Amino acid sequence: MTRAITLHEVSKYYPKQPSPAVDRFSLDIAPGEFLVLLGPSGCGKSTVLRMIAGLEDITTGELLLDGEYSNDLAPSDRKMAMVFQNFALYPSMTSRENIGFPLRFEMPGEEHGPRVDETARILGIEEILHRYPGQLSGGERQRVAMGRAISRHPSVFLMDEPLSNLDAKLRAHLRAEIARLTHGMGVTTVYVTHDQAEAMSLGDRVAIMRSGVLQQISTPREAYHLPENVFVAAFVGTPRINLLQAMVIAPLTGGMWIDFGRQRLGLPEPLNYDHQMLRIQQGRRIIVGLRSEAVRIAQPSQAHAGEVVLSGIVEHIEYQGHESLVHLNTGSRPAVVPELEAPRPTGGPGSRSAARRAANGSNGIGKLAQKAARRIQASVMERDHAGGTGNGDAPPKPAYSPGQNSIPVTDRPLGPPETQTGDLVVRTGPDIRVRRGDRVPLLVDLAYLYVFDQDGNRICPAPVRQPRLE
Ligand SMILES: Nc1ncnc2c1ncn2[C@@H]1O[C@H](COP(=O)(O)OP(=O)(O)OP(=O)(O)O)[C@@H](O)[C@H]1O
Predict the structure, then answer these.
(1) What is the ipTM of this complex?
(2) pLDDT value at residue 341
(3) Going by fewer Cβ within 10 Å, which terminus of the chain is more open, N or C?
(4) What is residue 72's predicted lDDT score, i.e. its pLDDT?
(5) Would you say the CB of residue 42 lies under 6 angstroms from ligand 1?
(6) Which protein residue has the closest C-alpha to ligand 1 atom 2?
(7) Which CATH number fits domain 5-227: 3.40.50.300, 3.40.50.2020, 3.30.200.20, 3.40.190.10?
């Protein structure tokens, strides 16, 4: 059995919190679909999951299960199984007892042995059924937790960062196992993660969230190739997309350039449709997005059609075995999406536990301290991003005045280009022969040029629905 899930304009306000944890969130999940909720810490992913499970009340909006209004349906009547990050196994029960535990309520009076054995076989854990959680490795514990969810034959799996307590190798292995299992069973799965690589490799579709608001819902491929805004562009993809401050220069006499300050990119004529649309931005500040594979180090004479020339000074080379990442300074000003610069807090001011503490009556001084800590963290992030030049000690200057749906993006304070650190990362073969300090020619493939407007919305490639020009 599997089921469709619809969230219609769902919002969640926690007590004493000024802004909603989830804000008018709408989503249709098809039966059997694997949907990943992706976003930075605190953006509301788990809250969405918990509202689907019935563990959290919906403040406004509707939850439909197979088309039926289900806001008030008891969690036990939803036929959903949840898998948590911390496994949530009972320490005093063996693996067999843990897996069979929910069946006591779902199949009272029936023999559970065959169901537990079948589940253990699917997961390859027959050998550890007699052991207690304390006698299992992290990967084995997570398999038992999966087993407890599977044995119930649920109609929906809800998984809240189920792999984040495991090491990288095991995560990759179990990720493949989860994909195989859930697709094989055809059960609708909603999977929460902040790890974009996990989301991209698992999801039929990915719903990307920021500050409680859905930013984009699409296939992983579309999220990477057609990000709707600068936040999605920056969140999806490794290494992170290069984001540069620029200006459109489009004199009436013809020609069009993207001006990075020290260098300009000339757009080839006749201008294609996407580039023509940039004319509206004449004289305005824009953000240019270039993925690391959109730029190559090569002589201008080697340019293919659609490639244009820039140059940069090599600052650092990251050898990765199968490839190298060359960090260059083109003299441009990088655009920074501040909330993406922070490492994932572990109990810091933005974390769930901190929020819960706040909700449980933290006083005004506590809140002020949290605010101050956040400010300090933001300014440290900005300084780190500026390469420790000291420029970041000043508060970051907002480049844009963010409206309700706009993406706050800051630019690094402009110093002499010589003192700025690398602003462009280029992916090359592992044996590239360049050295620190070399000035190298770059070819930019305009087929992979992204341009975002002042509010962070993508304008090139042009969005499918054009705003009406009047
Ligand atoms: N019980 C609660 N009371 C008050 N605020 C809460 C509560 N639970 C979550 N929040 C707040 O709601 C927002 C969304 O939290 P949520 O746990 O859904 O985010 P998340 O994206 O899952 O984060 P993480 O990846 O860190 O788990 C955060 O600002 C959090 O601090």
Answers:
(1) 0.98
(2) 66
(3) C
(4) 96
(5) yes
(6) 356
(7) 3.40.50.300
